[in-house]
Write the C-alpha coordinates for this entry.
Amino acid sequence: MEIRRNLISRKKPTYAVSEYLSEYLGRYGRLASGGVRYDDLARYAGQTPLYDEHGADTLWSTVYFGPSEQREIHDGLREAYALLKSDGDMSTVEHLYIDRVDLCLYGNTLPFRVRIVNRLNENFDYFYVKRADANRVYGLELEHVLSPNRINFFARIDGPDIRDQTLVEEHVVGLPGDAFIRDQLPQNRFDQVRLAKEFVKFNERCFVRLLGDMHAGNWVVDVTPDFEKLHYRMRPIDFDQQSHHGAKRVYLPQFFSQNNPVIEFGLQHLTETTVDQYQREERALIAGRLRVSSDRYEALTAVMREDLISEPENIRQLAEALTAHYADDSFLRAQTMGELVYHSLELLQARAEPASLRLLRGATAPDVAGDVALGPPA
Protein backbone atom coordinates (compact mmCIF):
# COMPACT_ATOMS: atom_id res chain seq x y z
CA MET A 1 0.00 0.00 0.00
CA GLU A 2 1.38 3.39 -1.00
CA ILE A 3 0.26 5.63 1.84
CA ARG A 4 2.02 8.71 0.56
CA ARG A 5 0.05 8.70 -2.69
CA ASN A 6 -3.36 7.71 -1.37
CA LEU A 7 -3.65 9.21 2.11
CA ILE A 8 -1.32 12.19 2.48
CA SER A 9 -1.78 13.82 -0.90
CA ARG A 10 -2.99 17.21 0.35
CA LYS A 11 -0.79 19.72 2.12
CA LYS A 12 -1.56 19.75 5.82
CA PRO A 13 -3.02 23.02 7.11
CA THR A 14 -0.97 24.75 9.79
CA TYR A 15 -2.40 25.61 13.19
CA ALA A 16 -1.23 28.59 15.21
CA VAL A 17 0.20 28.13 18.70
CA SER A 18 -2.61 29.04 21.08
CA GLU A 19 -2.26 31.23 24.15
CA TYR A 20 -2.77 28.14 26.33
CA LEU A 21 0.03 26.25 24.53
CA SER A 22 2.25 29.33 24.67
CA GLU A 23 1.82 29.44 28.46
CA TYR A 24 2.87 25.78 28.65
CA LEU A 25 5.98 26.48 26.54
CA GLY A 26 6.92 29.35 28.81
CA ARG A 27 6.50 27.20 31.90
CA TYR A 28 9.01 24.65 30.58
CA GLY A 29 11.56 27.02 29.08
CA ARG A 30 10.47 26.62 25.47
CA LEU A 31 9.62 30.27 24.83
CA ALA A 32 11.93 33.13 23.85
CA SER A 33 11.46 36.75 22.85
CA GLY A 34 14.75 37.20 20.96
CA GLY A 35 16.49 35.65 18.01
CA VAL A 36 15.51 35.64 14.38
CA ARG A 37 11.95 35.47 13.06
CA TYR A 38 10.89 33.25 10.18
CA ASP A 39 9.77 36.31 8.22
CA ASP A 40 13.27 37.78 8.58
CA LEU A 41 14.70 34.86 6.61
CA ALA A 42 11.85 35.02 4.11
CA ARG A 43 13.25 38.40 2.95
CA TYR A 44 16.10 36.69 1.07
CA ALA A 45 17.19 38.41 -2.12
CA GLY A 46 17.89 35.31 -4.20
CA GLN A 47 18.64 31.58 -4.16
CA THR A 48 20.78 28.97 -5.89
CA PRO A 49 20.23 25.17 -6.03
CA LEU A 50 22.26 23.14 -3.53
CA TYR A 51 23.90 19.96 -4.84
CA ASP A 52 25.51 17.14 -2.85
CA GLU A 53 29.07 15.86 -3.27
CA HIS A 54 27.92 13.61 -6.12
CA GLY A 55 26.32 16.46 -8.05
CA ALA A 56 22.74 15.42 -7.27
CA ASP A 57 20.11 18.03 -6.53
CA THR A 58 19.34 18.01 -2.78
CA LEU A 59 16.02 19.84 -3.32
CA TRP A 60 17.36 22.55 -1.00
CA SER A 61 18.40 25.99 -2.21
CA THR A 62 20.98 28.25 -0.60
CA VAL A 63 19.53 31.72 -0.08
CA TYR A 64 21.40 34.98 0.24
CA PHE A 65 20.45 38.38 1.59
CA GLY A 66 21.02 41.94 0.51
CA PRO A 67 24.01 43.81 1.97
CA SER A 68 21.78 46.07 4.05
CA GLU A 69 20.07 43.13 5.79
CA GLN A 70 22.65 40.40 5.98
CA ARG A 71 24.39 41.55 9.17
CA GLU A 72 21.12 42.06 11.04
CA ILE A 73 19.82 38.63 9.99
CA HIS A 74 23.08 36.84 10.77
CA ASP A 75 23.19 38.49 14.21
CA GLY A 76 19.62 37.30 14.81
CA LEU A 77 20.59 33.77 13.80
CA ARG A 78 23.57 33.77 16.16
CA GLU A 79 21.32 34.97 18.98
CA ALA A 80 18.83 32.20 18.14
CA TYR A 81 21.63 29.63 18.33
CA ALA A 82 22.70 31.00 21.72
CA LEU A 83 19.11 30.73 22.98
CA LEU A 84 18.90 27.18 21.65
CA LYS A 85 22.22 25.93 23.01
CA SER A 86 23.23 28.05 25.99
CA ASP A 87 20.10 29.74 27.34
CA GLY A 88 20.93 32.97 25.54
CA ASP A 89 24.54 33.36 26.72
CA MET A 90 25.94 35.42 23.83
CA SER A 91 29.54 34.87 24.94
CA THR A 92 29.23 31.33 23.57
CA VAL A 93 28.68 32.56 20.00
CA GLU A 94 31.27 35.35 19.77
CA HIS A 95 33.54 33.14 17.63
CA LEU A 96 30.75 31.65 15.49
CA TYR A 97 29.66 32.83 12.07
CA ILE A 98 26.79 31.97 9.71
CA ASP A 99 28.21 30.04 6.78
CA ARG A 100 25.04 29.20 4.87
CA VAL A 101 21.25 29.42 5.00
CA ASP A 102 19.30 26.83 2.99
CA LEU A 103 15.62 26.72 2.13
CA CYS A 104 13.77 23.40 1.75
CA LEU A 105 11.58 23.79 -1.33
CA TYR A 106 9.60 20.57 -0.89
CA GLY A 107 8.90 20.71 2.86
CA ASN A 108 5.38 21.26 4.14
CA THR A 109 6.39 24.42 6.01
CA LEU A 110 9.34 25.56 3.83
CA PRO A 111 11.91 25.36 6.65
CA PHE A 112 15.27 27.11 6.68
CA ARG A 113 18.40 25.17 7.65
CA VAL A 114 21.28 27.21 9.06
CA ARG A 115 24.91 26.11 9.02
CA ILE A 116 26.90 27.83 11.78
CA VAL A 117 30.69 27.50 11.99
CA ASN A 118 33.29 27.91 14.74
CA ARG A 119 35.96 30.18 13.24
CA LEU A 120 38.59 28.86 15.70
CA ASN A 121 38.51 25.23 14.55
CA GLU A 122 36.08 25.16 11.57
CA ASN A 123 33.72 22.80 13.41
CA PHE A 124 30.12 23.35 12.31
CA ASP A 125 26.58 22.66 13.41
CA TYR A 126 23.09 23.02 11.95
CA PHE A 127 19.79 24.28 13.28
CA TYR A 128 16.40 25.01 11.72
CA VAL A 129 14.04 27.97 11.59
CA LYS A 130 10.40 27.21 10.74
CA ARG A 131 6.91 28.56 10.94
CA ALA A 132 5.48 27.51 14.26
CA ASP A 133 2.77 24.87 13.83
CA ALA A 134 0.88 23.49 16.82
CA ASN A 135 0.97 19.90 15.54
CA ARG A 136 4.73 20.10 15.25
CA VAL A 137 5.14 21.67 18.70
CA TYR A 138 3.11 18.88 20.28
CA GLY A 139 5.11 16.32 18.33
CA LEU A 140 8.41 17.73 19.55
CA GLU A 141 7.24 17.83 23.17
CA LEU A 142 5.85 14.29 23.05
CA GLU A 143 9.15 13.11 21.57
CA HIS A 144 10.99 14.75 24.44
CA VAL A 145 8.74 13.17 27.09
CA LEU A 146 7.96 9.71 25.65
CA SER A 147 10.96 8.61 23.61
CA PRO A 148 14.49 7.63 24.66
CA ASN A 149 15.68 10.85 23.01
CA ARG A 150 15.79 14.43 24.20
CA ILE A 151 15.16 17.21 21.73
CA ASN A 152 15.87 20.92 22.03
CA PHE A 153 13.74 23.71 20.53
CA PHE A 154 12.09 27.00 21.37
CA ALA A 155 9.26 29.10 19.99
CA ARG A 156 9.10 32.85 19.47
CA ILE A 157 5.47 33.98 19.65
CA ASP A 158 5.02 37.61 18.59
CA GLY A 159 1.25 37.40 18.10
CA PRO A 160 -1.74 35.07 17.65
CA ASP A 161 -1.33 34.86 13.87
CA ILE A 162 0.82 32.02 12.58
CA ARG A 163 2.79 34.54 10.50
CA ASP A 164 4.02 36.01 13.79
CA GLN A 165 5.16 32.68 15.22
CA THR A 166 8.59 31.09 14.73
CA LEU A 167 10.03 27.72 15.75
CA VAL A 168 13.78 27.13 16.16
CA GLU A 169 14.95 23.50 16.41
CA GLU A 170 18.26 21.76 16.88
CA HIS A 171 19.57 19.36 14.26
CA VAL A 172 18.82 15.67 14.96
CA VAL A 173 22.02 13.76 14.26
CA GLY A 174 21.76 10.58 12.22
CA LEU A 175 21.77 9.06 8.76
CA PRO A 176 18.58 9.98 6.81
CA GLY A 177 16.44 6.88 6.50
CA ASP A 178 16.25 6.91 2.70
CA ALA A 179 20.04 7.32 2.38
CA PHE A 180 20.61 4.64 5.03
CA ILE A 181 18.40 2.19 3.14
CA ARG A 182 20.13 3.03 -0.12
CA ASP A 183 23.75 2.89 1.08
CA GLN A 184 24.11 1.50 4.61
CA LEU A 185 21.80 -1.49 5.12
CA PRO A 186 23.61 -4.16 7.18
CA GLN A 187 24.70 -7.28 5.36
CA ASN A 188 25.12 -9.70 8.26
CA ARG A 189 22.22 -11.40 10.01
CA PHE A 190 23.09 -10.18 13.51
CA ASP A 191 22.90 -6.49 12.56
CA GLN A 192 19.78 -7.10 10.47
CA VAL A 193 18.07 -8.56 13.55
CA ARG A 194 19.08 -5.55 15.65
CA LEU A 195 17.81 -3.14 13.01
CA ALA A 196 14.51 -5.04 12.72
CA LYS A 197 14.12 -4.97 16.51
CA GLU A 198 14.61 -1.20 16.57
CA PHE A 199 12.06 -0.76 13.78
CA VAL A 200 9.46 -2.70 15.80
CA LYS A 201 10.09 -0.41 18.76
CA PHE A 202 10.05 2.70 16.56
CA ASN A 203 6.78 1.52 15.00
CA GLU A 204 5.31 1.12 18.49
CA ARG A 205 6.48 4.54 19.71
CA CYS A 206 4.93 6.27 16.72
CA PHE A 207 1.61 4.49 17.06
CA VAL A 208 0.94 4.95 20.76
CA ARG A 209 1.58 8.72 20.56
CA LEU A 210 -0.03 9.06 17.08
CA LEU A 211 2.94 10.43 15.15
CA GLY A 212 2.23 10.00 11.45
CA ASP A 213 4.00 10.07 8.09
CA MET A 214 7.14 8.20 9.19
CA HIS A 215 8.34 7.13 5.75
CA ALA A 216 12.10 6.77 5.23
CA GLY A 217 12.57 10.46 4.45
CA ASN A 218 11.20 11.53 7.82
CA TRP A 219 13.41 9.55 10.21
CA VAL A 220 17.13 9.11 10.77
CA VAL A 221 19.24 6.23 12.07
CA ASP A 222 21.71 6.85 14.88
CA VAL A 223 24.34 4.10 14.64
CA THR A 224 26.41 3.45 17.79
CA PRO A 225 29.37 1.04 17.66
CA ASP A 226 29.54 -1.37 20.58
CA PHE A 227 32.43 -3.62 21.63
CA GLU A 228 30.85 -6.46 19.64
CA LYS A 229 28.41 -5.09 17.06
CA LEU A 230 26.36 -2.02 16.18
CA HIS A 231 23.34 -0.55 17.93
CA TYR A 232 20.65 1.25 15.92
CA ARG A 233 18.18 3.88 17.04
CA MET A 234 15.56 5.39 14.76
CA ARG A 235 14.55 8.98 15.46
CA PRO A 236 11.79 11.02 13.81
CA ILE A 237 12.80 14.36 12.31
CA ASP A 238 9.44 15.55 10.94
CA PHE A 239 6.57 16.16 13.35
CA ASP A 240 4.07 17.95 11.09
CA GLN A 241 1.71 14.94 11.09
CA GLN A 242 1.49 14.62 14.86
CA SER A 243 -2.14 13.71 15.56
CA HIS A 244 -3.61 15.21 12.42
CA HIS A 245 -4.65 12.53 9.92
CA GLY A 246 -7.73 10.36 10.24
CA ALA A 247 -6.34 7.07 8.91
CA LYS A 248 -4.84 4.70 11.49
CA ARG A 249 -2.24 3.33 9.05
CA VAL A 250 -0.64 6.74 8.70
CA TYR A 251 0.60 6.31 12.28
CA LEU A 252 2.23 2.93 11.57
CA PRO A 253 5.62 3.15 9.81
CA GLN A 254 5.25 -0.51 8.84
CA PHE A 255 2.73 0.49 6.16
CA PHE A 256 4.98 2.88 4.25
CA SER A 257 6.49 1.18 1.22
CA GLN A 258 9.66 3.31 1.51
CA ASN A 259 10.42 1.36 4.71
CA ASN A 260 10.07 -2.07 3.09
CA PRO A 261 13.79 -3.03 3.02
CA VAL A 262 13.92 -2.73 6.83
CA ILE A 263 10.57 -4.48 7.23
CA GLU A 264 11.90 -7.38 5.16
CA PHE A 265 14.56 -7.99 7.81
CA GLY A 266 11.79 -8.36 10.38
CA LEU A 267 9.88 -10.79 8.24
CA GLN A 268 13.03 -12.84 7.67
CA HIS A 269 14.43 -12.91 11.20
CA LEU A 270 11.71 -12.16 13.77
CA THR A 271 8.93 -14.42 14.97
CA GLU A 272 5.55 -13.29 16.24
CA THR A 273 6.74 -14.09 19.76
CA THR A 274 9.80 -11.85 19.53
CA VAL A 275 7.83 -9.03 17.90
CA ASP A 276 5.33 -9.23 20.76
CA GLN A 277 8.21 -9.18 23.26
CA TYR A 278 9.75 -6.04 21.73
CA GLN A 279 6.38 -4.28 21.63
CA ARG A 280 5.73 -5.04 25.29
CA GLU A 281 9.23 -3.90 26.21
CA GLU A 282 8.75 -0.58 24.43
CA ARG A 283 5.34 0.02 25.99
CA ALA A 284 6.79 -0.67 29.43
CA LEU A 285 9.62 1.80 28.78
CA ILE A 286 7.18 4.48 27.64
CA ALA A 287 5.02 3.90 30.73
CA GLY A 288 8.13 4.30 32.87
CA ARG A 289 9.00 7.60 31.23
CA LEU A 290 5.46 8.83 31.81
CA ARG A 291 5.72 8.03 35.51
CA VAL A 292 9.02 9.89 35.79
CA SER A 293 7.68 12.92 33.84
CA SER A 294 4.12 12.76 35.14
CA ASP A 295 3.77 16.50 35.94
CA ARG A 296 5.00 17.57 32.52
CA TYR A 297 2.93 14.89 30.79
CA GLU A 298 -0.24 15.96 32.60
CA ALA A 299 0.40 19.63 31.82
CA LEU A 300 1.06 18.91 28.14
CA THR A 301 -1.95 16.67 27.61
CA ALA A 302 -4.21 19.11 29.48
CA VAL A 303 -3.34 21.73 26.85
CA MET A 304 -3.44 19.30 23.95
CA ARG A 305 -6.87 17.96 24.87
CA GLU A 306 -8.31 21.48 24.56
CA ASP A 307 -6.59 22.38 21.30
CA LEU A 308 -8.01 22.09 17.79
CA ILE A 309 -5.27 20.70 15.56
CA SER A 310 -7.29 18.66 13.06
CA GLU A 311 -10.62 18.52 11.28
CA PRO A 312 -13.63 16.91 13.03
CA GLU A 313 -13.88 14.23 10.33
CA ASN A 314 -10.28 13.15 10.97
CA ILE A 315 -10.96 12.91 14.71
CA ARG A 316 -14.10 10.82 14.15
CA GLN A 317 -12.40 8.48 11.67
CA LEU A 318 -9.38 7.88 13.88
CA ALA A 319 -11.52 7.46 17.01
CA GLU A 320 -13.48 4.68 15.32
CA ALA A 321 -10.30 2.96 14.15
CA LEU A 322 -8.69 3.11 17.62
CA THR A 323 -11.91 1.85 19.24
CA ALA A 324 -11.84 -1.20 16.98
CA HIS A 325 -8.10 -1.71 17.49
CA TYR A 326 -8.08 -1.55 21.29
CA ALA A 327 -11.66 -2.78 21.86
CA ASP A 328 -12.16 0.29 24.06
CA ASP A 329 -14.99 2.73 23.37
CA SER A 330 -13.46 5.58 25.42
CA PHE A 331 -11.95 6.82 22.14
CA LEU A 332 -15.44 7.46 20.74
CA ARG A 333 -16.05 10.17 23.35
CA ALA A 334 -13.01 12.16 22.24
CA GLN A 335 -13.68 15.61 20.78
CA THR A 336 -10.08 16.47 19.88
CA MET A 337 -6.95 14.74 18.64
CA GLY A 338 -5.34 15.52 21.99
CA GLU A 339 -7.99 13.44 23.74
CA LEU A 340 -7.20 10.50 21.44
CA VAL A 341 -3.50 10.76 22.30
CA TYR A 342 -4.37 10.99 26.00
CA HIS A 343 -6.64 7.92 25.91
CA SER A 344 -3.96 5.97 24.04
CA LEU A 345 -1.29 6.81 26.61
CA GLU A 346 -3.58 6.24 29.59
CA LEU A 347 -4.48 2.83 28.19
CA LEU A 348 -0.80 2.06 27.69
CA GLN A 349 -0.04 2.90 31.32
CA ALA A 350 -2.90 0.76 32.59
CA ARG A 351 -1.79 -2.24 30.56
CA ALA A 352 1.96 -1.81 31.01
CA GLU A 353 1.97 -1.44 34.77
CA PRO A 354 5.22 -2.84 36.21
CA ALA A 355 5.02 -6.11 38.11
CA SER A 356 6.46 -4.45 41.23
CA LEU A 357 3.44 -2.14 41.53
CA ARG A 358 0.99 -4.98 40.90
CA LEU A 359 2.62 -7.09 43.61
CA LEU A 360 2.33 -4.23 46.11
CA ARG A 361 -1.43 -4.26 45.56
CA GLY A 362 -1.70 -8.03 45.33
CA ALA A 363 -3.00 -7.74 41.78
CA THR A 364 -2.40 -10.02 38.84
CA ALA A 365 -0.94 -8.91 35.53
CA PRO A 366 -3.55 -7.35 33.24
CA ASP A 367 -4.19 -8.86 29.85
CA VAL A 368 -2.40 -6.81 27.18
CA ALA A 369 -4.66 -6.53 24.17
CA GLY A 370 -4.41 -4.47 21.06
CA ASP A 371 -0.67 -4.76 20.42
CA VAL A 372 0.33 -3.77 16.91
CA ALA A 373 1.64 -6.68 14.88
CA LEU A 374 4.40 -6.00 12.39
CA GLY A 375 2.48 -6.84 9.24
CA PRO A 376 3.65 -7.64 5.75
CA PRO A 377 5.48 -4.95 3.80
CA ALA A 378 3.33 -2.41 2.02
